Amino acid sequence: MPVPSVLVFDVNETLVDIESLSPLFTELFGDQRVLREWFAQLVMYSMSVTLANSYVDFSTLAQGVFRMVADIHRVDVSDDDVHRLRTGLLTMPAHPDVADGLARLKDNGFRLVTLTNSPPNPDGPTALQSSGLAEFFEHQLSVDACQAFKPSPAVYRYTCETLEVVPADCMMVAAHAWDILGAQNVGFSGALIARPGNPPLPVDGLPQPHLVASDLRQLSVQLIDN
User: Fold this and answer.
1) pLDDT in tens, 120-133
2) Preceding amide of 196 cis, omega within 30
3) Residue 226 above 70 pLDDT?
4) Can you give the pTM of this predicted structure?
5) Rounded CA gap, 200 and 175, in Å?
6) CA 72, CA 38: separation in Å to the nearest integer?
7) pLDDT in tens, 182-198
8) Nearest Cα to Cα of residue 181 among 47, 21, 63
9) How large is the angle between the packed helices 177-185 and 153-163, nearest 10 degrees?
10) Which residue stretches of the chain are H helix?
């Protein structure tokens, strides 16, 4: 695999920790595992919306899926609870390995950008800014510009067009195999950050990530030292 010059990072779970939302789900549902149920439904419906040639932004969809999951569990959620979810999505902390890994990659000449399903926040900082990570990236790209969610080919092509690079120059770095599959489909290489609950997808006939790392420190070692 040629060494990429541009590293394109997913944000949610890859860089920032959605487990910070656990207290809200534990309080409302009595089970923090509902967080993962909600997030899986959110991803599924983001893909469904794109396949149906429709679009609402990720924050709006997240709040709607939150109400839907509450209905499934017969739990009443208030407007204040939904507001707490939205606030939580904008204030998730960085994983402890991320700043070190990004600094090392940037110091070694890689171009760093983000590509997230989350929309820009017109009312204040995004999760990336709140976590203190924004300074590492030359561009913070959102699928909102394409009106389609990952893994639509359009969002990865939009990234290349914005950066004025070809897909072969880019590596998608994500904690989700489905995101990497989408990027590889248009010619990116892929690095899976195998955070807890996010292993590779071992299916013959599907492309596998070029690199698998437990965190960004390990990824920096693989890209720089090997």
Assistant:
1) 988 788 899 999 99
2) no
3) no
4) 0.95
5) 9
6) 11
7) 999 999 999 999 999 99
8) 47
9) 70
10) 22-29, 34-51, 58-72, 79-90, 98-107, 127-130, 153-163, 177-185, 216-224
